[in-house]
Amino acid sequence: MKINIAIDGPAGSGKTTLGRELARRIDYHFLDSGLFYRYFAKLLTENGYNPLEKAKVIEFCLQKKTVIAKDPKLFFQKLENQQIILSHPKVSNLASLFSPIQELRQIIRELIRELLKNKGFVVVGRDMTFKVLPEAEVKIFLTASQSKRIERRYQQLKESKEHLSLEEVKKDLVERDKRDE
């Protein structure tokens, strides 16, 4: 059985670390929604667009959304291959210039929704994870103060030689979520 896990919280709370480890352990696909913003910002910049050209930006992104939705495997390969570049602070700064465009945010939400249909994903992302996966069976919201706890838990999992089953991970997450409420 595939379940969807959504992780949300502020920057620095450990979403990516937790999401990557969970996805690896339960053989899911990991998706950092922030990569989408950085990917689009990089494409827009490389093609000479600037955030002030709102209508042109939206038109370009709608075209890219259509292309991406036709071949999600290729898109995920591109994201994986460009992950180091997309994680660079310069690209994050570019994304922050384009992300205030509400229509672009909506295009990215719709694209992620399309890509996630009937797939097993661990999704992390600020402000959009629960909007994209409102039906997620496991929802986690991290606060910035939980970052150290997440890092410690990640190290414990990493050092552990036992492999947790899907049910054990799900049970652990639900129990932790209840304790944190």
Description:
With 181 residues, the chain is α/β, with parallel strands linked by helices. The chain has helices at residues 15-25, 33-46, 54-70, 72-81, 83-86, 89-98, 102-116, 129-132, 147-159, 166-180, and strands at 5-8, 29-32, 121-124, 138-141. The chain has a 4-stranded parallel beta sheet with strand order 2-3-1-4. Helix 1 runs parallel beside helix 9 (147-159). The chain is globular, with a radius of gyration of 17 Å. The mean pLDDT is 78.
Question: Which structural class best describes the helix and strand composition?
Answer: alpha/beta
Beta-strand content: 5-15%
Report the C-alpha radius of gyration, rounded: 17 Å
Low-confidence stretches: none
- Portion in helices: 55-70%
Largest sheet: 4 strands, parallel
> Kindly, what is the distance between the CA atoms of the first and last residues, rounded to a whole number of angstroms?
27 Å
Mean pLDDT comes to: 78
Strand line-up of the largest beta sheet? 2-3-1-4
Tell me the number of strands.
4
Helix and strand pattern: EHEHHHHHHEHEHH
Pfam families: Cytidylate_kin
EC number: 2.7.4.25
Organism: Paraglomus occultum
Protein name: (d)CMP kinase
List strands and helices in order, with pairings.
Blueprint: E1 5-8, H1 15-25, E2 29-32, H2 33-46, H3 54-70, H4 72-81, H5 83-86, H6 89-98, H7 102-116, E3 121-124, H8 129-132, E4 138-141, H9 147-159, H10 166-180
Features:
alpha/beta, 4-stranded parallel beta sheet, globular, 10 helices, 181 residues, single chain
